[in-house]
Prior knowledge:
By secondary structure, this protein is α+β, with helices and mostly antiparallel strands. It contains three helices and four strands, in the order βαβββαα. The protein has one domain: Alpha-Beta Plaits. A two-stranded antiparallel sheet has the order 1-4. A two-stranded antiparallel sheet has the order 2-3. Strand 2 and strand 3 form a beta hairpin. It starts with a strand and ends in a 7-residue tail after the last helix.
Amino acid sequence: TYVISQPCVDLKDRACVDECPVDCIYEGKRMLYIHPDECVDCGACEPVCPVEAIFYEDDTPEEYKAYYDANVQFFDDLGSPGGAAKMGEIDKDHPLIAALPLQVH
Ligand code: F3S
Ligand code: F3S
């Protein structure tokens, strides 16, 4: 799967959402999250993020390693909704993201 990481926090450019062929990039309050089971690893989202927040799981830089679990665990209580558009902004973030100070871009 692919992983969204800290540069997305408090920015949420959303360019990635338009590229995803399976609509598996879900919006939280402060960051977007890729569904690990719905993502088909097409890689279309990665180059369009203006702040390079998206990585293939094995290529995630050391400082962002915890974001793999953050993306996965975001869906613990959501299951597999099968499409982000119908969900709109989901009223939560993973605790790792919720605890961050406001990110200034
Ligand atoms: Fe975030 Fe980049 Fe997508 S800022 S919403 S991961 S285009
Ligand atoms: Fe979508 Fe990116 Fe996966 S475009 S299918 S989230 S690699």
